[in-house]
Structure formats: C-alpha cells, structure tokens
Amino acid sequence: MEVDLLFKIAGIGILIAVLNQVLSKAGRDDQAMMITITGLIIVLMMVIEEISSLFTTVRNLFGL
Predict the structure, then answer these.
(1) Mean pLDDT of successive 10-residue segments in the chain (64 residues)?
(2) Is the C-alpha dihedral spanning 6, 7, 8, 9 positive or negative?
(3) Is 28 left (phi over 0), alpha (psi -120 to 50) or beta?
(4) How far, in Å, CA of 25 to CA of 54, rounded?
(5) Collapsed DSSP state (helix, strand, coil) of residue 64
(6) What are the angstrom distances between the C-alpha of 42 and each of 6, 11, 14, 23?
(7) H-type helices in the chain, by residue range?
(8) 16 contacts 31 by C-beta, under 8 angstroms
(9) In this predicted structure, what is the pLDDT of residue 64?
(10) Tell me, what's the pLDDT at 52?
C-alpha cells in the first residue's frame, strides 16, 4: 500500500470534517449529512479498489 493513498484519505477526511462543521453551524444539517455520506462513499471506493488489487495479486500468486 502506498503512503499516497493514506494522505488522500486523510485529506478527504479533513475536508469533509471542516465542511460538516461549517454547514452544521449554518443550520444546514441535511446538507452536512449528505457531504459526510458522500465523503464516506468516496473513501470506500478508494479502499475497495485496493482490496480488489490485493485479491488479484493473491490469486495470481497462488495460480487460482
């Protein structure tokens, strides 16, 4: 796993946290929740790609 991926996930997390706080303070709790869910989906998609790559590597390693 690359360190680059960890920095991307951390950056997305910080950005989402700041946007969530700003929107919550402005009284837009619905939009804050949607931003949080969107950030979670983006990070999960990034992690799923890495897990898929891992499974492909393991499959090729054992010749399955």
Answers:
(1) 88 95 92 94 94 92 86
(2) positive
(3) beta
(4) 41
(5) coil
(6) 13, 12, 13, 19
(7) 3-25, 29-62
(8) no
(9) 78
(10) 94
Q: Hey, what amino acid is at 19? A: L
Return the structure tokens found at 55.
């499974």
Q: Structure pTM?
A: 0.78
Within a 13 Å sphere around the CA of 55, how many CA atoms are in the beta-carbon half?
6
- AA letter at 34: M
Written as one letter, the residue type at 24 is: S
Count Cβ atoms within 10 A of the Cβ of residue 8 and give its class: 0-12 exposed, 13-18 middle, 19 or more buried. Answer: middle
